[in-house]
């Protein structure tokens, strides 16, 4: 992770021998929830870098399951495993983050689109 402030996370990842820099911004909701749930900006950066990516409902779900934790972080696996980070449609705003014992099952059973409520 390059730098971090309470509202912003900037980190680098390597892809095809090139370094790419990513910047994520917390929404008010995600900032509050990450503090409540004890999920640090470093953990969010690791989940988005190493986790599996699933697209659905116009959102991007990054999931770091038990088997996805990189070898260099195995000693600290309990901090990272089964963490989900949801990124908005714009690709740089964190909607929320949480932990779930079986994260893949929960995401796969979500409907493909968000329900739209009819105004009365």
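Q: What amino acid sequence fits the structure above?
A:
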């Amino acid at each position: 992770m390059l730098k971090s402030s309470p509202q912003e996370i900037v980190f680098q990842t390597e892809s095809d021998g090139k370094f790419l820099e990513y910047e994520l911004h917390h929404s008010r909701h995600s900032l509050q929830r990450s503090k409540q749930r004890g999920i640090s900006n470093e953990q969010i950066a690791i989940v988005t870098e190493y986790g599996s990516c699933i697209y659905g409902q116009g959102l991007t779900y990054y999931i770091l399951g038990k088997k996805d934790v990189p070898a260099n972080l195995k000693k600290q696996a309990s901090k990272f495993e089964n963490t989900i980070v949801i990124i908005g449609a714009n690709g740089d705003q964190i909607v929320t983050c949480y932990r779930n014992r079986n994260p893949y099952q929960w995401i796969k059973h979500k409907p493909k689109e968000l329900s739209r409520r009819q105004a009365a």
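Q: And what stands out in the fold?
A: The chain has one domain: 3-103.
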